[in-house]
User: Fold this.
Amino acid sequence: MNFKRITLGLLLLAPAAIFAQEAKPLAYHLDVRGPLDRAKAESLRRRLNAALRASADLIIFHLDSPQGEIAPAREITEEVRQLRERQVKTYAIVPANVALGSATFVALSCDKIYLGENAGLADFAYLSADERKALAPALLDLVRQREIPDGLFEAALDHTTGVYEAVDGGRTRYYTKRQTQEKNVGGMVHDNPKKVPADWAKAEGWALKGDVASLDPIYESHQVRFSRDDWLDQLAEFFRQPWVNFLLVAFGVLGLFLELKLAGTAVPGVLGVFCFVLFFWSYSFVGQFPVLAAFLFVLGLALIVIEVLVIPGFAFTGIAGLILVLGSLVLVTLEKMPTTTGDWAELGARLAMLTGSLIAAGVASAVVIHFLPHIPLANRLVLEPPADPEITRPRYAHLLGAIGVTLTTCRPGGKAQFGSDFLDVIAEGEFIREGREIRVIEVEGYRIVIKEL
Assistant:
């Protein structure tokens, strides 16, 4: 009897326990690892929107993000600041030994900032002096809106001024030399700090000491959902690595070239298109011009095909196609138009890498075409003349050196007239138009190779 009562009691308590668990406020823990570039920002934006759709009460940004780009970080900052209007609390955690670059904007936009041991903010040493000067107004404005003393941030951006540590109003403060003169205070001098150290931020009172473990009480009182970059983000990041870019472009060009050379096989063409699809897809997360770049790439390929199959020898079409293809590959990788010396240097490096890919593809194409007939299985893609002695003997050997006229455009195969004979011929190298004077330069069985005079 007692056993039945206990069982019944547990069954009645179970729904209540579940309801109590669901009644807990919802917290989202968003991991941001690696430089905060446009791709990371887009991933973070998607996860942030997911947290809002789930009606999260608290969003925790775990910022393990040195360096990064300024523009996407500022865009995310505006979205984080708007969360206050929805009464959503935001905390930022910077783990130990991590100094934030552009993610500093995100941290400063949160309601609370937790800094681990030897962590830091505003580490913009990876930017040039002009770039630091350009971002100073936006960063200092954000600092002042939070009513944080701005001396540390001014010094971190300047790199030429020291920081004076003083006690002002019973609290430790850090000032630039200009500020000490204005406030008539003095103290210990710290030479040229290049970031805002955690200890100084905690001493001023606007940051808290701690890491993820410090939020255990919050996690216990909330339902917590952890969110990181999904596997698609990680896969796209892998395909954006320079050496992977090099291989994708090289194999893409090689596949398309072999498809034109060995028309009808389909396999090289499909693989080539697949490589370029992966290349463009990986940059669709970050680039500002993916649609335009894809359009120019298709147009460039169309011009190259026209050059090869329709109007051979008209070099302008082929050159224009190559320029469009190369330009589209560069354009899709751009996160913004180059403005600084560093931007132009990065663009030059990317252009050099893509040019190297095209050259490598050209060399590989020549090697493959030369050795393909001798590779087992692969040689089935190449048509060889029959082994019949009657066919392979030099029947047209007397035509070697003969002069004739093309009757059709040779692409590379076609027809030509030699005296009263009308024969099938193959053009060497470039295509030969109809009605051009030609010379026979090689004869092998029924294979007659010609060259335009």
Observations:
- The radius of gyration is 34 Å.
- The first strand starts at residue 26 and ends at 33.
